[in-house]
């Protein structure tokens, strides 16, 4: 359940890196149904759970359309200023922080509904979710080439970043591709670190679900458990790992600025136009329904 919140945000802000704007309109119009289908893949919902999820997701979707899409437009305008100007690392960090804050807003809005749903989850459903997570983790580790050492991880990161960069800015020349590879080779990919963080969040989430199933705490206690989980979702609680996470985020921001610097005026105009399409789509979507 917790992950569907991320799914909605990714659908709007990250999935755009590999899909066209028309997919945003189609996907967003069916976001509540898609989220319910996604949850069912992890839990195999009972009819009663499906009805509850349907009702709450519909309300969540309506709230999101009315209040969050207009706010995303402001973030997209910030993105336009980034690609059209001469951004600094602070600008890239600000964009990232803006996405994180909006994700936390989604989490807080959904907390009460999730707190009502969690007591209905059975031990068998929790184990199904754990098994499904393990399958996805295996796929993720393979795609990121975690077993191939640092060189393999950098190769996977280069492929992923090139796809995303070319979506926004258009095709890169051979010289730009070589420069991108050099930038990535100059950094530690951090892939293993973020994979370990992924596992940490999953372990803590499964333990939260098992605690609710085992102890049957009152609704107010479940809400507090969810808020405690959300408080350290984005960054680790361990001080040493927190320092590492912050350093990796800054390195990613530095990379974003360096990539921007190697693009041409035409490529930046290409990115600005794509962001403009999204602004139009989000504005129109917020007025529908």
* Proportion of helical residues: over 70%
Estimate what percentage of residues fall within beta strands. under 5%
* Number of helical stretches of at least 4 residues: 12
* SSE order, one letter for each helix or strand: HHHHHHHHHHHH
Our count of domains comes out at 1
Estimated structural class: mainly alpha
* N→C terminal distance: 24 Å
Strand elements, count: 0
Short description:
The chain is mostly helical.
Overview of the molecule:
The chain has 289 residues and is mainly α. The chain has one domain (2-286). The protein is 83% helix and 0% strand. The chain is built from 12 helices and no strands. The protein has helices spanning 2-14, 21-29, 31-43, 47-84, 89-117, 123-143, 149-169, 174-185, 191-215, 219-231, 239-261, 265-286. Helix 5 (89-117) packs antiparallel against helix 10 and helix 5 packs across helix 11. The longest helix is centred in the first third of the chain and has 38 residues, at 47-84. The radius of gyration is 20 Å and the shape is globular. Residues 1-21 have low confidence and may be disordered.
Show the helix and strand layout.
Elements: H1 2-14, H2 21-29, H3 31-43, H4 47-84, H5 89-117, H6 123-143, H7 149-169, H8 174-185, H9 191-215, H10 219-231, H11 239-261, H12 265-286
Helix pairs in contact: 1-3, 1-5, 2-12, 3-4, 4-5, 4-12, 5-10, 5-11, 6-9, 7-8, 9-10
